[in-house]
Design brief:
Helix content: 10-25%
Number of strands: 6
Number of helices: 3
Largest sheet: 6 strands, mixed
Length: about 120
């Protein structure tokens, strides 16, 4: 894993659904500014600095309308029709999930909630 790599911190069960290819959209309350094609590493929230795999960032969609959110529910796997972040609901699209055979440790800095960086 290269120094400076982007690490996205995600809770269970979402991280598992992403890495297993069932989920391609991560729902968040802000636009993702990563570059198309950038490899992003996925760390387990509350895992004490544990990276479980990687995916390729495709695009940030939104803010989503209620119809867009409902129409793509099979891609984000979140139940319900309500926008979780109201008018600031975005879908971060990923492809090419790769689950690591062994978890990769990283130094998780206190206060990192959404993004971390490999040192």
């Amino acid at each position: 894993m290269p120094r400076g790599a982007s690490i996205l911190i995600i809770q269970q069960p979402w991280i598992g659904l992403l890495l297993d290819g069932y989920k391609t959209l991560e729902i968040r309350g802000q636009k993702c500014k990563k570059a198309h094609g950038e490899k992003v590493y996925l760390a387990l929230s509350g895992g004490g600095g544990t990276i479980l795999g990687s995916m390729t960032f495709v695009a940030s969609h939104g803010p989503l309308t209620r119809a867009e959110y409902a129409g793509r529910s099979d891609e984000h796997c979140v139940a319900g029709a309500q926008l979780p972040y109201g008018a600031s609901t975005y879908a971060w699209e990923f492809k090419a999930p790769r689950r690591f055979r062994l978890a990769v440790p990283y130094v998780h800095r206190h206060g990192c909630v959404v993004w971390a960086t490999k040192e």
